[in-house]
Design brief:
Oligomer: single chain
Number of strands: 6
Structural class: alpha+beta
Radius of gyration: 27 Å
Order of helices and strands: HHHHEHEEHEEEHH
Largest sheet: 4 strands, antiparallel
């Protein structure tokens, strides 16, 4: 075999290699609903869902938060209502200041109801008013738009 022939055969071997399969198909296959889910049976993660539902029942949405506030200040204000488990408030990337709204999760629904009664509270040096209302479930809009008919065959 001549050196040029071996180089030509090596080149043809490279050309004949099969392409790698796309990983997108694997992701789609794993994210598709199972037959049990389509049949309407309940998933095995029911206790986790119940705990999440309970946390949603004890959460309030707060808007009108002054941009100069921090999480500790919000925790102090709502700590008067009851035990605060979590305060989630998004911040601007460039300055780190609050965006003006937050979710506050309480230990029990009595504390949540006390916080809702604080609606209209005047805070901050500029006299902003907090609008406090019961938080809506995050899946409420999504569940309304997706039907079982849409899931079949996808």
């Amino acid at each position: 075999m001549l050196p040029t022939e071996s180089a030509a055969s090596a080149t043809s071997e490279l050309v004949k290699r099969p392409r790698k399969k796309s990983s997108k198909k694997a992701v789609v296959a794993t994210s598709a609903p199972s037959l049990d889910a389509l049949a309407g049976s309940k998933p095995a993660e029911e206790p986790a869902t119940a705990a999440k539902q309970e946390a949603d029942d004890c959460t309030v949405f707060v808007s009108g938060v002054p941009y100069t506030f921090d999480l500790e200040k919000l925790n102090g204000i709502f700590g008067k209502c009851g035990k605060v488990l979590e305060v989630r408030a998004p911040t601007w990337q460039d300055s780190g200041r609050l965006r003006g709204y937050a979710h506050v999760t309480f230990q029990d629904s009595k504390a949540r109801n006390a916080a809702i009664k604080m609606d209209g509270m005047k805070v901050g040096a500029k006299g902003r008013y907090l609008k406090i209302e019961a938080a809506k479930a995050p899946d409420a809009k999504l569940a309304a738009k997706v039907s079982e008919k849409d899931l079949i065959g996808k």
